[in-house]
Amino acid sequence: WRPPVRHRGLVVVQLRAELRRVAANGEQLLLTLGIPVMLLVFFSLVDVLPTDTKEPIDFLAPGILALATMSTAMVSLGIGTGFERSYHVLKRLGTTPLGRPRLITAKIGEEVVRLRSHLAQFRDALNSAGETGKMLDFLLQELNREANTTLSKSTDLSIKEAALGIKAEIEKIREQVQNVE
User: Fold this and answer.
1) What is the pTM of this model?
2) Quick check: helix, strand or coil at residue 157?
């Protein structure tokens, strides 16, 4: 799906602004990178968990990656909702040149960019040698999160149906990935 040609410039500008906002949020960067790295380093140096693996990091990495993903999503959703409510964004959209449909299109476009990135990483992981099961599972969690976000941001029925279709396909793939090491 693509916006009409006359609106693409505004959508691209809003999409860039949304991506810059994500990169500028220290909370997200801390939750995505800082805390998981600290936890992985700590638990790889200290033997406090009863695991059946030789390296505790092999046991902890998938859980910590999932925790980082969920934490980032929750913080982002909370902060975004708080700002939009406190600044009455939706009420003011009627008076802005962008308008509500184009703003929502840009926000969904942000999720599409992330989906494409995760799909490219998924393809690369499939083509790489070695143990890829955990990475594929993590990327499927990310893809599912992006589909959920698209579902929650969209007001268009066809986009919601497409997001639900994506979620169903992700679940089918997840069942297959459970057999990959």
Assistant:
1) 0.45
2) helix
